[in-house]
Each structure stands twice: as C-alpha cells, then as structure tokens.
Amino acid sequence: MISSEGKSGMNILLISVHGLIRGHDIELGRDADTGGQITYVLDLARALARDPRVERVKLLTRLIEDDNLSPDYAQAEEFVDEKFAILRLPCGPARYVRKEQLWPYLDQMVDRCLHMLRRRGRLPDLIHSHYADAGYVGRQLSLLLGIPQFHTGHSLGRPKRERLLDSGRRAEVIDRSFNFGQRIDAEEDVLAHAACIVTSTRQEIDEQYGLYRNCELQRFVVIPPGTNSERFSAPGRRRLSESLLTNIDRFLAEPGKPMILAIARPDLRKNLSGLIAAYGNDLALRAKANLVIVAGSRTDIRQMEEAQRKVLQDVLFDIDRYDLWGHVALPKEVTQDDLPDLYRLATRRRGVFINSALTEPFGLTLIEAAASGLPVIAPDDGGPRDILANCRNGMSVDTLSPGAMAYALHEALNDRARWSKWSSNGISGVHRHYSWPAHVDSYLREVRNALHRNRKDNRRQQLVFGSIEGGGALPLASNLLISDIDNTLLGDSQGLRELVTWLRNSRRRVGFGVATGRTLDSTLAILRKWQVPIPDVMITAVGSEIYYGRACVPDTRWSAHIRHRWRREDIRQALSGVPGLKLQPDDTQREFKLSYFVDPVLLDNIDEIRRMLTRQGLQAQFIYSHGEFLDILPTRASKGHAVRHLAYRWGLPLERFLVAGDSGNDREMLTGDTLGVVVGNHSPELAPLRGREHVYFANQRYARGILEGIAHYGFGQADSPTTDCFLDMP
Questions:
Q1: Could you read off the pLDDT of 393-418 as tens digits, one per residue?
Q2: What does pTM read for this prediction?
Q3: In contact, 29 and 35? CB cutoff 8 Å
Q4: Inter-residue contact 115 to 144 (CB < 8 Å)
Q5: Architecture in CATH for domain 565-635
Q6: What's the CA dihedral at 35, 41, 47, 52 to 10 degrees?
Q7: How far is CA 391 from CA 43, 386, 611, in A?
Q8: CATH code for 476-562+638-730?
Q9: CA triplet 397, 335, 290: central angle to 5 degrees?
Q10: Could you tell me if 727 and 477 are in contact, meaning their C-beta atoms sit under 8 angstroms apart?
C-alpha cells in the first residue's frame, strides 16, 4: 500500500451519491437529480484517469435496484476504462428516490464504504465529494481515516432556501420538502473540515459561500471545468445524425430556419416559461427562427414526478397559448450521444444557444455550445459572467425579462458578421480557458499541496490495519455488544443480571463493550459497584479514549488519530466567561474532552459558541445531551467514530455490532449499519431516529431494553462458534 507520495500514482475517490450515474448513455434531464453535476463528475473522473500522475479513480455512488430503471444501476462495479471505475453501494431504499429522501441513510453509505475499503486493502489518497449529501459522507470518511477531503458544492442550501423564501413559499413547507436544516448543517461542517473547496467561479465564493459562517477564503480554489473537445467541436463538413435530424425536424414547418436552442431539465428555476414568452410574444423572432427545447427524456408526462410534470405541462400550454405549433420542437428524448450533433446542427443553421435559467452557478452547456461554434445568450449571473468574459462569444441578459431575452436573441441572429465573430471566439476561448487537461493540472497541484499539509497523517494505513499496542490479542468473537452505561446498561438490577447471564452464555460468539461519557476510573468504579464484568473494550470520555480488557490497554493509535487540529487550552480560554457555561469538576476533564454544565436560560443557542470558536480558527465537535451537559471533543472523536474504528481495525462488519443508548451523545453510534437499540427510558433527543432502518426503539427500560433489542435482531445467534473470545467473565 504505497501512498501517492511513494512510487505509485495518486488514488482518488470521488463521491456523488444521488442521481442516475453510469459510464455510458447518461440519462440527463430524467429528473432534477440527474443534471449537469453528473456530467461534471464523470468528465472529471475521465480526465483524472487520463493523467499519468493518477493511478486509479473510483467514483462512489448509490446502488439502485428498480424495475423502472436499467439494471446498469444495480451493478456493484462498472469499469469505465482501465483506470476509472464506478462503485455502487446500497444506501436506503433499493428503489430510486430523490436526493432529499436520502439524508436518513447516509450513515449507511459511510459504513459500507469503510467496509469496502477495508476489504480491498488500499485506501485512497484523496476523497472528493460532490454536493451536500456526498459532503456529509466524505467528511465522515475523512475524519475516520485521516484522508484529506476536497469538496465541490454544485448547488448550496442557504442561497436556494433564500430564493424559495423570496418567491413567497413558507419556511416550514420548504424545510420539510428539501431538508434544509440537515443540508445546511452538513455544508457548514464540510466547510469547516475540508482541505479544499473547489468552485467554478469567484462569484460562488463571494455571493453563495459567503452566506455561511464557516466560509474561510484560504480553503477555496477556483478551477473552471473543462469540456471534451473531442466530442464538442465545430460542424465542419461532417455528416450529422439522420435520426437526430428527423427527431428535431418533424416538429417544424420550416426546419431550415436558424435554431434557438435551449437544453435544460424540466425545473421551474430553468425558466422555460419565460423563454417561451420571449419567443411567443415576438412575431419577428418567430418568423426569423425556430425554438428547440430539449428538456430531458420522457415516455409519458403523466408518469413523471409532480414538479417535472407541471413544468412540461406548462410548456405545452404555453406553446398552445401562443399558437407555436410548427415553430417549436420539443423532442421526447435526445441521448447524450446526440448532444454534440445537436449543437453542431444549431451552428450549421446559424442559430444561437440560450440559457434562460433564473440563476446559474456555472453552466456546462454554455461551454459545450461555445466549443461547437454556437453563440450563447446567458443569465447575468455566476458562471455565465466568467464564460462570456473569457470567450467573448455572446451576451448576458436579465432572464426575468422576456423582452430582454427577445432583444438579445435578435442581436445574436440579425448581425451575420457578429455571429461569425462570436462563433470563432467561442471555439478559441474554450480551448484557452476550459480544457480538462488544464483543469487537471490545477487540480493535482492543489491535491499535492493538501497531501503535503496532511503528511503527518499519512500513516493512516497503520491506523486502520495495524494491531493493538502492548501485545494484546484482537477479539475473536464474531459479534460485539456495545452499550452506554448510565440509564442504559444500568438502572435495573434484575434486568442487568439477566443481560450478564446472556453474555456469559454467548461468550463464544459475542464480545462485550461499553461506550460512555465517563472517565476510565469512573467507568471501572461504577461497573464494580453494579457487579458488571470488565468489558473487552471500553470507549470512554464520550469516544475520546479507547481501552482493551482487564489490563485497560490504551489504544494509542486512536489518541494519535483524534489529536488532529485539537487545541484544548485555546478552546478552554476562549470559552471562559461565556454566560451559561460552567466547567464540570476536574475529575471529568480529559486530554481530549472539555466538559461543561449548560444553563439553558443564559445560553439557549449552542451554535453561537460554535461560531465563536470557528471565528478564532478553533475546530471541535460539540455533543449536547440531556439539555444540560456539553462535551467538546476533537473533530475526529465521538462514540460513533470510535465504534467504526474498532470495526475496521478488527475486520468485523458493522452489522455485527449491536449498540444501545438513551441520549444525544449515543446518536452517532446508533445510525448507519450498526444494529441500534434505543432503550424505553430514552431522552427526547433520540425521538427523531424513530423509523430509521436498524434503529429499534425498545419498550423495556435499561438492560431489559437491551435484551429486547437482542431478541428483536436475533443478535449473536446465527453464527456458529469458532473459538473463545477474550471476554473475561468471573
């Protein structure tokens, strides 16, 4: 396992969770989740794979089994070329669902990716996540494995939420529909953690990321995407696809007229109704040119998602309203293979490409059109500003004004000399500013810088694959029960005795561990008081310390791992004197844990503390439980991360871990692929987990609730014993 700084090339893991992703015949426009982001990620992967400095590129996405979709999306591994493969892992429902419905299941993706990496025996040198959901997954993997994370947002939650609020939609409705709370929190966490945020334009940083509290300018780099010049090029004398010509021209009474070409998925933000109004209200424009709208693929509008169906219905109504039959082409399907010829057809007919979107972060279609020699009209926003400034191949327009769009279209179509100038400028400008080789050069330079900064953490292979210090044996049990102590394991003496008896009887199959906010000394004392046998493993101090067996052998590699960016004394000083915060007694404080009492009357918003530390360049994880206790830990430390560290050091799948808890500091270890048990006496903080896969809410309290969960899952009963584990029961 040679790192990228050794003899072999870089090993890069890209993550793009949602949408329909495959290496051929991309179904762009099928829905709102299958758009330009997918083209970007696939093109980036291919460009990286072509570079000799890169050994391997893997693209991680979701495995989908859906009778309404191609079986391609159920293929666990797709080899696109010699150095690039798409990996698919199950996450949430087997069927295809929109991205907003995936948030409860993202911990599964983390767990299954960790298991896959452990099985394959080689960790990537870099994780690059795309969009907020992948950002969450990438951050967890980065924290657990010590691998630098790059992130590209593509679309951001805060500006989107503001635009929806400005449109008059109610906050509670849009937050419920789009999961903005989770999404924005994940984006903030990624911004605080990522080694580099890759954007396509400066405007993204200034006007979009600038809305976030964790926006640190030194983390950003502008690297515009490229376009495939082998696919997208001027028409020349080449023959165009006859099937494409038939597919377009069958709608048109005079197909030889110039084409106004629009390519956009059926989404309100793409403003197709505004474009049709611009065209329909201008008789001279209708006489001059045809309008061709490629709005994704469809078989039956009635079977589409409601939002897409409404957009397409409105398009058809508007065509009828303005009596545009014979003037507008709206093909049911234009494949990815057809797109280059579609641009070339519009160029050959001396047409123009228009992006009528209300906002546009970048606009890949604009540089595809430019590379094909097709002049462009684009919104005065985001990426189009940079593209037009670099290529000088068209004009910007206020897309909120149909009249302004009509005027711009006339300007593009009526001056033949200017059209020719814009056409040639676009071709040369794309070659100069938007090539994938140039993108990869800049990208790999940033990667090398990140790996250099991360060099002290590049022993991560030892972290995951090494053995326990001090000569301790690794557990040989095939299952592991890990329980919180207070109000979970303890609280009912008779139920505890029954659980201990079960553990003794299952010792050949089931190991035993605890995960607690207590210190090691306090843990040992309370277990002795309740006559609980010493566990095989003790995760203490809210996941910041791990100890093994009766000898309490510390896991020093875990300590070295979580030390990353931890400035304990600076945090303590920064929080001194904050109203509503009071340090807990000295015996609760640890090297990797600061513990406070919280007065919710004086301090009703923990996020204010987080923001204050961020402004001072201090990174930490906050665990608030029972409405009165605040534990501040290194970003890599938590009960959940500690459990996953154990799983992958021991080579034990997470579905072999049954974890039990009652409060907010147990939440992270209860989600994902672990078998979670929430005891009946749980605090309200865990109520949102109800209904999650692999999270069982017991009716019984304390240890009896754990036993109820064991029975529910049939835990520890399916495996035949192999050898004794080192659980040391009296």
A1: 999 999 999 999 999 999 999 999 99
A2: 0.72
A3: yes
A4: no
A5: Alpha-Beta Complex (3.90)
A6: -170
A7: 21, 8, 41
A8: 3.40.50.1000
A9: 45
A10: yes
